[in-house]
Amino acid sequence: MRLWVGFPHFFGHVSSQDFTYAVGVVENVAGVMVFLLPRFAPYVVGCWLGGIITNLVIISAVRGGHANVFWDIALRDFGLLLTALASARLAVVYAPNPFRRASTQPDGGRVTMNPGPPVHDACGLTGLVRANPANDDGRKPEPATPSGGGSVHLAGHALP
């Protein structure tokens, strides 16, 4: 049973090997896009994988039984789809946005770890001080707690 009888003739006289080469070119271009535009291209890759998964599920459901079904490949591609979406979510946080103007904040709004300058206590031991952005009047910052070791600054706001 075919879902669309005209599909094998849709591309004219293109051999299956040439069609596979074209698919390989599209997938390589998608890989380069993920490298160059990590905030947007993983969604394109996710749509591509979603199409592959849909195709494999339809073929496996139509054939039925246990012969010539592709559930395992569809499941693998579903894992790749989740990886592409996770990559896109991570890129939203960590990759620069090429379409946004430069930030007006001095640190660019990036998450940075500021351990603070080293200080020497009365015994000559070196420790870390907790950098406090509200303490910019020249006063000596408080020493960090032994379990501490610094503070995280997000867009100019100190986080404990």
Ranges where pLDDT stays below 50 over 5 or more residues in a row are 128-133, 146-150
Major beta sheet, specifics? 3 strands, antiparallel
**Shape from CA axes?**
flat
Indicate the percent of residues in helices.
Answer: 40-55%
> CA-to-CA gap between the ends?
63 Å
Number of domains: 2
Structural class: alpha+beta
- Give a count of the beta strands, DSSP E runs of length 2 or more: 5
pLDDT averaged residue by residue: 73
> In DSSP terms, counting alpha (H) and pi (I) runs of 4 or more, how many helices?
3
Detailed description of the structure:
It is a single chain. With 160 residues, the protein is of the alpha+beta class. It has two domains: 16-94; 103-160, no CATH class. It has three helices and five strands, in the order H-H-H-E-E-E-E-E. It has helices at 16-36, 41-63, 71-94, and strands spanning 111-114, 118-120, 126-128, 151-154, 157-159. The strands form two sheets. A three-stranded antiparallel β-sheet has the order 1-4-5, with no helix packed on it. A two-stranded antiparallel ribbon has the order 2-3. The radius of gyration is 27 Å and the shape is flat. It starts with 15 loop residues before the first helix and ends with a strand. Mean pLDDT is 73; it is low at 128-133 and 146-150.
